[in-house]
Amino acid sequence: MNETHHVTVKEEQNIIDNTRKEVTHIFQVNFFAMCLLNTFPWDLLDRELKSSKTSDVILEILDKTCLNAVCRENPPSLKYRRRFLTELIKRHEMLEAEPLDALYEALGEVMCAQERDTCYKTYLLPTGDAVSLAENVALISEGTTGLVTWEAALYLAEWALENPHIFKNKTVLELGSGVGLTGIVVCRSSSPTKYIFSDCHPTVLQRLRDNVTNCLTNRHCNSVQVCVEQQDWQKVTDEQLRRIHADTIIAADVVYDPDIISCLVKLLARLFNYKFQESHPDVYIASTVRNPQTYDCFKTELEKAGLKHDIIKDAVTQVFPYNRVSTIEMIKIHA
Ligand SMILES: C[S@@+](CC[C@H](N)C(=O)[O-])C[C@H]1O[C@@H](n2cnc3c(N)ncnc32)[C@H](O)[C@@H]1O
Asked: Pfam families, per this entry (predicted)?
């Protein structure tokens, strides 16, 4: 019997449809997280345009990005949308097809509007749910790094999605929460009893409160008790720590400046040495290793404070789009 399988017209159409769905989905995920435009799969789009000989895929992308309801409500920055639409128009022009009115109308709309300091980045969860956070356009502003989501926060959130048991029915304290991505994902996916977001910077705290209020409504996690606290690692009191009584402590990208390492380690040592807690908390810290010297200094300080650590090497499923070139290391600290 001849076992050669000839691809039927229907199967071929299915392959084409799936490829198109995949391309439009990647464009949507990258657009809402405001990924660099050169990380978009433009070559796949070009191929799709050439093979289908229609502009349909461009219209689908437009529908899933600039014209999508999420974009109307929580838009990426104007500059970003302008550059995105300009690139989309360029790709479409290469097809030598009739100009698409919808593309030019969308560009016209963003050309007239006025840029703001704040934009929205939206991260899509595996359930399809969106987490839209108000973030600053600049990586550092108002003297803080806390107004944007950093890669280690996205990594820690991906790890949390795969390890809900670490958080389920626990009181979780997050140090240096920034705009709140990790905690919001944990609260939406892992059913902690209580989640305490914390930071020291007043503008960051205000932004954090807004994001937490918008992203953690009763619809998302009605059983989690959520609060946002001002907590400076240098000033946090025994009374505050006693009241929080955390089972699990997490932090992302808090080891970036040699000046703050010593007060962070002192706080961690206090958390381990408290008599009021029958058992030690579980402490997980995810860090982007930008400067190996700074990171080594953190580990040396941990050792000096009598704290040991294990490197967590779990592979995580990639959920969020971010630059995975830099090394991100997660450690679990123990006494
Ligand atoms: C690089 S950002 C990381 C924010 C967030 N965890 C993320 O990864 O997206 C560092 C955060 O640590 C906070 N931070 C720095 N020093 C602190 C201190 N002494 N006490 C409390 N928070 C601090 C900053 O305000 C900032 O929000």
From this structure: FAM86, Methyltransf_16
What pLDDT does residue 289 have?
Answer: 96
Report pLDDT digits (tens) over 47-86: 988 888 788 999 999 999 999 999 999 999 999 999 999 9
- State which of 147, 174, 199, 320 you would mutate to test the pocket of ligand 1, scoring each by most atoms of that ligand within 8 A of its C-beta: 199
Instruction: Please report the pLDDT score of residue 1 as a whole number.
Output: 46
pLDDT-derived band at 295 (thresholds 50, 70, 90) equals very high
ipTM above threshold 0.90: yes
Residues 6+ apart with CB under 8 A from 74: 120, 122, 132, 134
Closest by CA to 120, choosing from 110, 131, 132, is: 132
Of 179, 201, 298, the residue with max ligand 1 atoms within 8 A of its CB, to mutate for a pocket test, comes to 201
> Using CA atoms, how far apart are residues 289 and 293, in angstroms rounded to an integer?
9
Query: Residue 228 — φ and ψ, nearest 5°?
Result: -120, 125
Contact call for residues 195 and 160 (beta carbons, < 8 A): no
Distance from the CA of 255 to the center of ligand 1, in angstroms? 9
